[in-house]
Design goal:
The protein has about 375 residues and is of the alpha/beta class. About 50% of the residues lie in helices and about 15% in strands. The protein has twelve helices and ten strands. It has helices at about 5-15, 35-45, 60-75, 110-125, 150-165, 175-180, 210-215, 235-250, 255-260, 260-280, 295-340, 350-360, and strands spanning about 20, 55-60, 80-85, 90-100, 100-105, 110, 135-140, 165-170, 185-190, 220-230. The strands form two sheets. A seven-stranded mixed beta barrel has the order 2-4-3-7-8-9-10. Strands 5-6 form a two-stranded antiparallel ribbon. A hairpin with a 4-residue loop joins strand 5 (about 100-105) and strand 6. Helix 10 (about 260-280) runs antiparallel to helix 11.
Length: about 375
């Protein structure tokens, strides 16, 4: 198999995993109409409807830049800005750039140097006909999912108050490596005096125990946008060149090794969650028949039981997630060993043998 075809397959796999759609270079999504942009900014329909924006469309090139930046900062958080525009009820991101900020494992702080850099970058971008405004910021959550913390909510609220339209994007570089696809979320906050009519139940996320409280307190102060990724033929050429340069590194690395610190932290966190669940589980006793006057008391006990089940159910989901990611990494290593470790003249294992090895890996745990 030639290096060119291998890099093409790797790039196609990335595109399929992240559902990247193709658009024409002449598509309106790439054309910047200054008059249309000025008109929609004057109308500002998002000020009347807190749910006006439904989608965040991100260029594949901008996405790659953000993921590389996020991965380079592990275990610390990183931060950057995104340039784009508004098309209908979508915020379209066409480019992104990193900010020279100081981050920790739990937060990132933008100093005055970052503000000066941002202004200079935007001014220089205009000189090369990158006319799109800054319409959002991105930062990373290494290992604890895509959501907004209390500090993130305050930051996004201020951004929406003074430079709307603005979107917050969060990337988890650790889960991106483990899952094999980009773990990303885009969010908009509600106005301070706004109460969402129906707080919808979001999809379950595995949040570390020390972050659960912060996640729960602020969960109803923002809402997620549907994230879609697009690329043009020119983007495909650029990304193809990138893949041809780095496909060997991608093929040779293993998430079981490169992400082992994250895997260990996941197991430690699961241990703490199971201990917490165990402390809330009551002893198993036979059900006592209830009298008519005791129904209300029994209702309270049922609520406690649901809470116990909730803790255990979440721990089970977390353990399943850890096991699946480990199995995927193990299967990947087995397949690469079978395909690339054979020598000329040696007997190549039959497809059935490969299936047996994969099945054995799936049965682990």
């Amino acid at each position: 198999m030639s290096s060119s075809s291998s890099s093409d397959i790797a790039f196609q796999t990335f595109s399929l995993a992240n559902q990247i759609s193709d658009v024409s270079p002449q598509d309106e999504i790439f054309a910047f109409d200054a008059e249309a942009n000025k008109r929609i900014l004057q109308q500002s329909p998002w000020e009347q409807d807190p749910h006006y924006f439904k989608t965040c469309k991100i260029s594949a090139v901008a996405l790659i830049k953000m993921v590389i930046h996020a991965r380079s900062g592990v275990p610390h958080e990183i931060m950057g800005l995104m340039q784009g525009k508004v098309i209908g009820d979508s915020i379209v991101i066409v480019d992104s750039f990193a900010l020279p900020v100081q981050g920790t494992e739990t937060r990132v702080n933008a100093a005055s140097e970052a503000n000066e850099y941002m202004v200079t970058y935007v001014q220089e971008s205009e000189k090369v006909r990158r006319l799109e405004n800054v319409v959002g910021w991105y930062h990373s959550h290494p290992g604890y999912g895509c959501w907004l913390s209390g500090i993130d909510v305050d930051t996004q609220m201020n951004n929406q108050r003074f430079q709307d339209p603005f979107v917050a994007v969060v990337i988890d570089p650790n889960r991106t490596i483990s899952a094999g696809k980009v773990d990303i979320g885009a969010f908009r906050t509600y106005p301070k005096d706004y109460t969402p009519p129906n707080a919808s139940v979001s999809e379950y996320q595995s949040i570390p125990l020390h972050k659960i409280e912060d996640f729960g307190v602020h969960a109803n102060q923002y809402y997620p946008l549907d994230v879609r990724v697009f690329k043009s033929g020119l983007d495909s050429e650029l990304l193809g060149l990138l893949w041809k340069k780095y496909w060997v590194n991608t093929l040779s690395q293993s998430p079981l090794i490169s992400n082992r610190a994250y895997a260990v932290s996941q197991i430690a966190d699961l241990h703490e969650k199971l201990k917490r669940a165990e402390s809330t589980v009551s002893n198993t006793r036979p059900t006592i028949p209830t009298l008519k006057g005791q129904e209300e008391k029994q209702g309270g006990k049922q609520d406690e039981k649901k809470k116990e089940d909730s803790h255990l159910a979440k721990a089970v989901k977390d353990s399943q997630k850890i096991a699946i990611e480990a199995q995927h990494g193990l299967i990947s290593q087995i397949l690469k060993d079978i395909i690339f470790s054979s020598r000329p003249g040696e007997h190549i294992p039959q497809v059935s043998r490969v299936g047996e090895v994969v099945d054995a890996a799936m049965n682990i745990g």
